[in-house]
Amino acid sequence: MATYKLDAMHSEITFKVKHLMISTVTGSFTKFDASMEAEALNFTDAKISFSADVNSISTGNEQRDGHLKSDDFFSADKYPTLSFVSTEFKKVGDTNYKLTGDLTIKDVTSSVILDVEYGGAMTDFYGQSKVGFELSGKISRAEFGLTWSAVTEAGGVVVSDDVKLLLSVQLVKQA
Question: What letter would DSSP give residue 43?
């Protein structure tokens, strides 16, 4: 069984949400961790876990970040971590997979499916074996209790319920 640990320096976890339904706000988590265990060379038996520090959320705007950490959204004081544990990693093409797992935000756990593209394997300058993956998907923030919403005077939605997830990760095979 091979164990892979996240190379955080060469990975990023971002999300995108429509604002006023006319533009998109991008955010990220700057502190996160992930690991994968797999015996099969094509990773079809992979067990993947991921966590992010909610207090590390960053959208490039301190006031907005504070609002996201508040009880209107993540309740970061009470629920400082969000987590994901895989239940299936299914190969659906040459380099494509479907990753199914349980995502926990606040005190709500729900099954999500992410599209995964395997970027390949490479040995870095230090002799470390690395693998890369690009993951994407969409979740409903209401499903996880992130229900704050507002409507403009004209009746427009301020923040979309749909949140697009985009993850680019490098994992280092452990000796």
Answer: -
* Largest pairwise CA distance in the chain: 59
pLDDT in tens, 82-131: 999 999 999 999 999 999 999 999 999 999 999 999 999 999 999 999 99
Pairing label, strands 108-123, 129-140: antiparallel
Rounded-to-integer distance, Cα 107 and Cα 113, Å:
19
Residue 147 DSSP symbol:
-
Residue 63: strand, helix, or coil: helix
Rounded to 5 degrees, φ, ψ at 142 are -65, -35
Q: What are the structural domains of the chain?
A: 2-173 (2.40.128.110)
Tokens of 68: 């996201």
| Site of tokens 């190969």 | 91
pTM across the whole model:
0.91
